[in-house]
Recover the amino acids of this structure.
């Protein structure tokens, strides 16, 4: 215990004191029980029971300057001097960012209420998808084929099985929708009349508030018309052994196709080889 008077115009203080190079770092006031730890400033912690409340605050707390933080342990109450955050004795939390979020949520609720009272319907467009169907010169598909498209919608989950409406029927193309998969099917014995078609599909969902939600998707269905077989090319110059080499090409939808999966129609994978036989090999292993 001891007494200190730091300046002539200050009162004499009694208690425990600590100093570092002439700057106070510790105080336990014997008169009112106030304590401070650390040098004066933002890093200092002050315990002040002098007003009858258990006050804990930062050394830079100043409500007028809106800096620092104060906690009243007897209520309790927490407050930042800048007003951005506080908790009162009733547990009410006030925060600047929470207020902004609350305002946005209320605005969204108001918009939904207006939507529900007025149109009972909301529509969104999900863009255009392209489907290219290889056909011969008479528009017959080169092979039986199913073109499956998985449907992704922002309303997925509002209704497990939405209803689907199409704006028109395309002769030669059948369609089916099941388990979020839209399938277009063609058969090689049925021609497709139009070279290019824009088909619009509307997926109708109903949410829990009985609001109709529509997702409109378009499909650009075009035909890739195969030309007639060209004339046999001019043989190359004889090699040293006098034989003519031939370059063979096949396409397939998988990397290791079977004979039935190989085709001359461009597909996902390509295989080639060169030999001295004019006819194409029927062994998939020959194509790399």
């Amino acid at each position: 215990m001891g007494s200190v008077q730091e300046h002539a115009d200050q009162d004499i203080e009694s208690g425990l004191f600590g100093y570092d190079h002439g700057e106070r770092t510790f105080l336990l006031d014997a008169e009112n029980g106030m304590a401070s730890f650390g040098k004066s400033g933002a890093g200092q912690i002050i315990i002040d029971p002098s007003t009858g409340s258990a006050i804990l605050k930062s050394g830079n707390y100043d409500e007028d300057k809106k800096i620092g933080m104060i906690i009243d342990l007897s209520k309790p109450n927490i407050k930042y001097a800048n007003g951005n955050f506080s908790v009162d004795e009733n547990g009410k939390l006030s925060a600047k960012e929470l207020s902004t979020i609350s305002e946005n949520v209320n605005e969204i609720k108001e918009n939904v209420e207006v939507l529900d009272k007025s149109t009972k319907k909301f529509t969104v467009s999900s863009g255009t998808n392209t489907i290219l169907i290889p056909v011969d010169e008479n528009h017959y598909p080169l092979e039986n084929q199913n073109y499956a498209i998985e449907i992704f919608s922002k309303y997925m989950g509002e209704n497990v099985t939405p209803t689907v409406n199409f704006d028109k029927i395309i002769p030669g193309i059948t369609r089916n929708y099941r388990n979020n998969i839209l399938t277009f099917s063609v058969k090689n014995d049925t021609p497709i009349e139009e070279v290019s078609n824009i088909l619009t599909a509307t997926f109708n969902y109903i949410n829990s508030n009985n609001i109709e939600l529509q997702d409109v998707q378009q499909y650009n269905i075009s035909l890739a018309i195969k030309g007639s077989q060209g004339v046999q090319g001019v043989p190359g110059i004889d090699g040293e052994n006098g034989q003519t080499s031939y370059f063979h090409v096949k396409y397939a939808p998988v990397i290791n196709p079977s004979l039935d999966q190989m085709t001359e129609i461009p597909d996902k994978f390509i295989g080639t080889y060169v030999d001295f036989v004019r006819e194409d090999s029927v062994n998939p292993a020959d194509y790399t």
User: Anything to note?
Assistant: The helical segments are 96-118. The longest strand covers residues 121-135. The chain has three domains: 2-95, 121-225, 246-286.
